[in-house]
Design a protein that fits this description.
The chain has one domain: Alpha-Beta Barrel (TIM Barrel), CATH 3.20.20.70. The protein contains ten helices and nine strands. Strands 3-2-1-9 form a four-stranded parallel beta sheet, sandwiched between helices. Strand 1, helix 2 and strand 2 form a beta-alpha-beta unit. Belongs to the KHG/KDPG aldolase family. GO terms for molecular function: (R,S)-4-hydroxy-2-oxoglutarate aldolase activity; 2-dehydro-3-deoxy-phosphogluconate aldolase activity. Keywords: Carbohydrate metabolism, Lyase. This is Bifunctional 2-keto-4-hydroxyglutarate aldolase/2-keto-3-deoxy-6-phosphogluconate aldolase.
Length: 223
């Protein structure tokens, strides 16, 4: 039941912060600022040195079941290439797993432990394979290779597919992706680049607030 609830919360929140950095502390600070700004779904990529330390620290502070709104956040792991990495991240507190590609063994492990898994896909064939493996949300990656209209094309033969574009999503096109049928979006460098250049991590909170508001407005326009 928790897996279903997590998927519902992820799609309700709608914006996933994909965080990279040079150190675990840097990523934790970026995550805290993103959460402060309203993005409550945090993906720490395994390209971060000692990424599991960042996941563990964030998981001890935030929880998807927290009653205190300031402590509510869903902490997950990204850039997962294999089941071994997925299991290590889950044991460190990760509540969802994201990969850049479709790895059946990783999906099987996540299904075994009832953890939401969002593998990267580029083609209808890969999306169909993901659905057959029991994936609930597929990551369309890299999103910057596509236009939002691709979702309508995919949903022609696969209307049951839940698609989350990642890469190339911006404040300018977020509404277009949601209007096209995306269940959520992943935001990466656009959220953190300015803060990394200036050293002012409060800029992440400001940008996160803009993304959160843009998602809410896009969803409201559909109702």
């Amino acid at each position: 039941m928790k897996k279903i609830q997590l998927i519902q919360k992820i799609t309700e929140q709608g914006v996933v912060a994909v965080l990279r950095g040079k150190t675990p502390d840097e990523v934790v600070e970026a995550a805290e600022q993103a959460i402060e700004g309203g993005i409550k779904v945090i993906e720490v990529t395994m390209t971060v040195p000692f990424a599991l330390q960042a996941i563990e620290k964030l998981a001890k502070t935030y929880s998807s079941t927290a009653q205190d709104a300031s402590k509510f956040a869903i902490i997950g792991v990204g850039t997962v290439l294999d089941p071994e990495t997925a299991r290590a991240a889950i044991l460190s507190g990760s509540e969802f797993v994201v990969g850049p590609s479709l790895n059946p063994a990783t999906v099987a492990l996540c299904n075994r432990y009832r953890v939401p898994v969002m593998p990267g896909t580029m083609t209808v064939k890969e999306i169909q394979e993901a659905l057959e493996l029991g994936v609930d949300i597929v990551k369309l990656f890299p999103g910057n290779l596509y236009e939002p209209s691709v979702i309508k094309a995919i949903k022609g033969p696969l209307p049951q597919a839940n698609i989350m574009p990642t890469g190339g999503v911006s404040l300018d096109n977020l509404a277009d992706w949601i209007k096209a049928g995306a269940v959520a979006v992943g935001i990466g460098s656009d959220l953190t680049t300015e803060a990394s250049k200036t050293g002012d991590f409060s800029l992440i909170a400001k940008k996160a607030a803009q993304y959160t508001q843009a998602f809410k407005e896009a969803k409201a326009a559909l109702s």
